[in-house]
Amino acid sequence: MSNLDRQATVTVCGGRGFVVAEPVRELLSPRHVQLGESTEVRRLLPNLGRRMVGAWAFVDHYGPDDIADEPGMQVPPHPHMGLQTVSWLHEGEVLHRDSTGSLQTIRPRELGLMTSGRAISHSEESPRPHARLLHGAQLWVALPDAHRHVEPHFQHHAELPRVTAPGLTATVILGALDGAASPGTTYTPLVGADLALAAGTETRLPLDPDFEYAVLAMSGEAHVDGVPVLPGSMLYLGCGRTELPLRAASDAGLMLLGGEPFEEEIVMWWNFVGRTDEEIRAAREQWMTSDRFGEVKGYDGDRLDAPEVPATPLKARGRVR
């Protein structure tokens, strides 16, 4: 998914200098962003106070939206580099096309994982016809320097491993949780898991104390380490945890995101993750004037133009503002 904000701002993040080394409970509120003509998203990362959680660098939550009489998601072809995109649905479908030739309909609790590597372009749209409701999250993972120029590729996994406990089903999206490992390719130690909690559940989820974590609330009413989290909000948890207390007042859906703190400082602008001002400016120019990012075939419409890069130099400074 693209960052369609026409006033794209520079995000500077990464490095361990601002990692919270002990458990915390930092509730992050979303920023509302219009995505295309009919979809509004709640942007949790990058946030005013926190830029990354492990290698997770971008989190949008959207829906549930009634799109029965609407076109639904309509994101024209746009470029990416230096990152992976994770498409995750609770309701609805998204049709993915990209410049490697991939064409895939992604359905609820199936993993759509696109590794941009050196350069890729893709589009995302609600199929025609489509389901009445659309509800999901779009996430980006920053690639480390050693792997950020890999060949672009797309993975789709309809079946993912699960961890179960009374009242809890955890689907492992990326990485590993409690001995269950996702088939999705990762390039840094991280975890992403979808947590479905039944009403009245009280449980504890095992964690890696070397990881930093956050929990995104998707639906329902849940308490995470005693903190109520409402749908569309995210609780940052810091590092140093061996387990996470969860309690559900109703049926609830959460996403657990975590990983080793990302050591490298990065520059994130529009749909690019790079390391320098020159690299970002060159990528923007190449999207507008060359074929570096390839062609998305089969999409009915024009591709997105890139916004203007700020006049001031883009610099990587750290994980928090």
Tell me what you see in this structure.
There is one protein chain. With 321 residues, this protein is mainly β. The protein has a single domain (20-259), classed as Jelly Rolls (Sandwich). The chain is built from one helix and 26 strands. The chain has one helix spanning 277-289, and strands at residues 10-14, 23-28, 31-35, 39-45, 56-66, 74-80, 83-91, 94-98, 103-106, 111-115, 120-125, 133-142, 153-157, 162-165, 168-177, 180-181, 190-197, 202-206, 212-219, 222-224, 227-229, 234-238, 243-248, 252-259, 265-269, 272-274. The strands form five sheets. Strands 2, 14, 15, 16, 17, 19, 22 and 24 form an eight-stranded antiparallel β-sheet that branches. A hairpin with a 2-residue loop joins strand 20 and strand 21.
Topology:
Blueprint: E1 10-14, E2 23-28, E3 31-35, E4 39-45, E5 56-66, E6 74-80, E7 83-91, E8 94-98, E9 103-106, E10 111-115, E11 120-125, E12 133-142, E13 153-157, E14 162-165, E15 168-177, E16 180-181, E17 190-197, E18 202-206, E19 212-219, E20 222-224, E21 227-229, E22 234-238, E23 243-248, E24 252-259, E25 265-269, E26 272-274, H1 277-289
Antiparallel strand pairs: 1-25, 2-22, 3-4, 4-5, 5-12, 6-11, 7-10, 7-12, 8-9, 8-11, 10-13, 14-15, 15-16, 15-17, 17-24, 18-23, 19-22, 19-24, 20-21, 20-23, 25-26
